[in-house]
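Researcher: Good morning. I'm working through a list of sequences from a screen, and I'd like to move beyond sequence-only analysis. For each chain I'm collecting a predicted structure so we can compare shapes side by side. This is the next one on the list. No need for commentary yet; just the structure.
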Amino acid sequence: MISVVMATYNGEKFIEEQLQSIYAQTRKPDEVLIFDDRSTDGTVKIVRDFIEKNGLSDYWKLSINEKNKGFFRNFMDGAFTAHGDTIYFSDQDDIWDIQKIEKLEECLKQPGVMMARSNTVTINENSEIITGAEYIGEDRILKLDIRKMCKYPGPGFTMGFKRKVFKKIKKDNIDIDVFKYHDRLCGLMAVSMGKCVMATDVHDMHRLHGSNQTGTISRSYVSDRTRDVQLDIVSRRRKYFRILAEVTDNTDKKKIFSHYSTFAAHRERYIRKYSIKDMNWLIKHRKLYMSKVGVLSDTMYSLGMGRIVSKTADRFMRVR
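Model: Good morning. Structure tokens for this chain:
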């Protein structure tokens, strides 16, 4: 059984295109669960009309939250209620490759694969491609490296998971709020349990526009970041990598997660109080940073000059 979990909030402008791309899949999902976070626009009506028009009420379900949860909790609570052996996250404003589920299901049937994701291009508000494929190469199925995933596990809208990932999160009573983002939590949990891969010939269209979550992050997550925000980020990383090290059964992965937790702890201490010793340690381990300007960024935050470096770093740092 295959489940799609979509979180919606004020998405009336683009949501019908995404609903249509899920409906048009060459491998149909067995259930599509749409959780609206109390939209104030026409999102709910558009979803209801789409379900009714296409006779989908038996397996497409719309739920309206009793109170606003935010996108993280909306996705996670939705995934925990899904019945599928595989579960896919869907944003409200993208366009799926019509073979996405078919191709990713082939990946997820392979031994040990816990997460499979698509390749992506980005589009603008007019559905025009503005950046090419995320990955260009000869590999049709690309194994995702755990160390690269520790830096950035990938965007949730590309991902499909074995149900086992969500069962483990619940069984081990993982403090999910430490992770803050559903793709970070689920992607890292998946790689802690097994293999993660990308189907490089599946090109989802990810829309960037003025009000979507990813667009907001790309503009503001680094720019104007305060020292306290930076400390919160590295503190969370220290905590969730420690959690991952505790729950994985793989000795090598345990060491990798522990190393990233230690790295985050050094960053946290350095940002709180400038130290030549800590700076030298971070320089020695600079490959663990997401960005080439990582040591410089932490140094500026440590010296109380974070807003200056954040504006400069915005051009170089990947979001999250």
